[in-house]
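note to self — DONT lose this again. spent like an hour looking for the file last time. sequence + predicted structure for the chain T wanted, 263 res
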Amino acid sequence: MHAVLRTAKGPQVVLSRTHPAFLEKLFQLEVPEIYEGVIEIKAVSREPGVRAKIAVYSNDARIDPVGACVGMKGSRVQAVVRELSSERIDIVPWSDDEAIFLSRALNPATVRRVVIDRREKRMSAIVDDDQLSLAIGKEGQNARLASQLTGWHVDIMTETRYDEIQAERLATTVPLAEVAGTGQVTRDRLEASGIMSANDLVRVSLNTLLNVPGIGETTAEKLRETAQEIVNEKVSAYREEKALLQAEAEEAKSTENTSENDA
């Protein structure tokens, strides 16, 4: 049962087999340790009828939460799968360490490392080239479910791509002083709130800006708009220059190969 609605014709009961809570209830029925509270279901993410992920934690160090949910020869989890018309279920051991939890949530892919941005509530999972498609999953399914399970925005990329993004961020950072309308007092207040550049002005939420003393809604929107224009110009110029250098390098390499062939 998902909800009870009060209507003019009387109460209406809303039933749902697609709600994540339905999956929780099924595991409670099949796994006594969950029903008794020894094992906790920390989070559930679903794409109903296709695939789901469930994060579990044991309050008893002697009991393996994943093994208990799977059951002898998979009997417990298979009973749930049958009830859900063969919906694939990944059982993930929960961890209060966000990086470890994400690495487990992206199973079966192997994650090399996780970079956490707490201010934007974003995690970047760094994987090897041969693990990228596995981590993302078919049509992005594995990544979406991992994001829902952890409650964080998740980016999945190779080490090379991560380095490229970091290099671009470093090269296109715009000082707050270049944003029109930011006097010294305003800049000091923004920096005290952790907003150190025009790029940060673009990334933070409007509510974050409104919490800065002396900044109202009109000012906040104007600052974000101005910062966005400056940052976009900086990023476009950087990418154009990078593309030009890459084209020149490829042309030089092509000329070199032609010369070697002629020789």
